[in-house]
Structure formats: C-alpha cells, structure tokens
Amino acid sequence: MRGFGFREHGGPEQLGYVEVPEPSAGPGEVxxxxxxxxxxxxxxxxxxxxxxxxxERPHVLGSDGAGVVDQAGPGVDDLSAGTRVLLNPGLWDxxxxxxxxxxxxxxxxxxxxxxxxxxxATERVAVPRRNVHPFPSEWSFADAAxxxxxxxxxxxxxxxxxAVQAGERVAIVGAGGGxxxxxxxxxxxxxxxxxxxxxxxQKEEAVRRLGADDLVVVSExxxxxxxxxxxxxxxxIDLIFDSVGAPTLGRSLxxxxxxxxxxxxxxxxxxxxxxxxxxxFWRQASIRGSTMAGRREFETVLGHLAxxxxxxxxxxxxxxxEGPAAFRRLDxxxxxxxxxxxxxxx
Length: 346
Hints:
Blueprint: E1 2-6, E2 15-19, E3 29-38, H1 41-48, E4 59-60, E5 64-72, E6 84-87, E7 90-91, H2 97-100, E8 111-112, E9 124-128, E10 132-134, H3 141-145, H4 148-161, E11 169-173, H5 178-189, E12 193-198, H6 204-209, E13 214-217, H7 224-231, E14 237-242, H8 249-255, E15 256-264, H9 277-282, E16 286-289, H10 295-306, E17 314-318, H11 323-328, E18 338-342
Parallel strand pairs: 11-12, 11-14, 12-13, 14-15, 15-16, 17-18
Antiparallel strand pairs: 1-2, 1-4, 3-5, 3-9, 3-18, 5-6, 6-10, 7-8
Helix pairs in contact: 4-5, 4-10, 7-8
C-alpha cells in the first residue's frame, strides 16, 4: 500500500512515497478507506525524529483523516461499509486509572496516529471503533480531515486545562496555523474577549471572521509582552494560548495579569526556555501544559462543530501525488488553516 512519508529521519529532502503493509481490522477495529488527510506541525517533528519515541520506518505521515468505512472487525456491528467518517487521532488503552475516570488524554499508554503508528496520508488505516465518528453531510472529506487534532487540542487547552470563563481576556499567539484558527473559535465560543498576536496585519480580516475581537502586531520594537500588556489596558491577559515555545513563553508570562495562566500546547520554535520566577509567583500566575483531548472532550467539540458553532478552516487541498508541495505549504507565510491531501471530490 502506498503512502506519503519517509524512510529515514531528516528534513524535507527525506519526504517521498513509501510502501507499507495493508491494514486489517482486528477485534473492535475498523479499517477506513481514506479520502482526505491533513498535516499538522507534529508531522515535522515526526519526520525529524522525536527523542525517545520509536517510529516505525518506512513511515506514513498524517494524524488527521476522513473517508469511508471499508471493513469492520469482529465485535463491530454498528457501522456499515461506505459510512462517511472522520478519525480521532488519539489512542488510549481504556484500562489505566486515567481512562477509568474518563480522562483518556492522561492515559499511561496514550499515542497519536501518525506519530506512534502509521499515519493517514495513505489509502487505508485501521483504528479502534471508538475513534471513528460520522460527520455532517454538508462537509466535504477535506473539511472533516481538517477538524480532529486542532479542535480537540484547542478545546482541552482552553475549556478544560485553561478553564476559560466568559468575559476573560484570551490571547492566541500566532494567526495562521490550524490550531490557532481553531483556538480563536473555541475561545470565542466560551465567551472570551479574544485577541490574536501576529507579525503583521495580513490575516487580520480572516481572524476577525473567525470571531477574534482584535489583532495586535508584534515586532522587535513592540514585543509580545508589551503588545498584549498595552492591549489589556495594563491589567494583563487572563489566558495566553502559546504553541511557539522558547521565543515567546517568557514574554507570554510577563503579559498575564494576576491569577493569569499560560497554556502551552507545543514548542514549534524551541523547547528550552528561561523564566523569571518572580513574575510567576508575584502575579500568582500559572503555566499549564495540554496535549490532545479525552473521549468526552472530543465528542463535545464535534457536537459544537456539527451544529455550526465552530467550523473547519481549510487552507488548501492538494492531490495525493503532490504531497511534497502540500507539506511545504506549512511554511508559507500565507498559510491560514489546514493543509489537506485528497483525491477527486475531497
């Protein structure tokens, strides 16, 4: 079976098409014939190699996917062949204490499709039945593939870990990536006043259409902390959603108000940081980490999407044979939303 991925870790020069075994549906599993797959920043780290994470090679990239049910394994009798479904890319064991209390994101065996397993940029994938969800008929396969990882990440980070309350000031660091476009919508749905911090105003109209109340421009002369502090009327931000890492985390902390929190969901520009702990304790602030989501959180955010309170944001759809070009789009300054690989009619 043909997939888009790599044989050896490295940079974009390692990307290409690889052959991997056809999946089969084991007990409680479903094989989905994929019609669309979407990329995330995670795919870059998987390609480069993540310390301590063994990755089978050759390896297919992609955590997000949508398609039709192709085969149901033993014990799965509630899905018929041809049903249009999207995939929850989070995998858990269902047996540990965290799973027993319904917080699967803290599962001791938590894994992610496309990182710890073969990914979705291929023809078929096998996943547990609990990871397969029908999606609204008005969505395209590309829309459905654009949803899972970024919306579950944004929902848990803001609603659960960040505990955003109506009326709070929430800042989203970055304007164009898939998780940022999801986070703007989720924060607004939770009743926050939402500001986006970006390097320029090119995407201001687009983020306002998603619900952002404002956009502040960050520069060397007006760094992140100063821009957000001024925007808040020098009262500080209640919650800052930061996926950048080393270049921004210290400044994010300096921009929060008393009792404020910085929720970190990634480290795309570096993972080693220096912090002034005096700011942390004097403002009684907190830095919280968040990854993916549990089953109920995923189903909750899907419900909001299904009723139109949130919407998928697709930057571009590329034919499967244009995988390298699609992957390069992740670095384009004009990126806004998810980059999707899909066939005709996706």
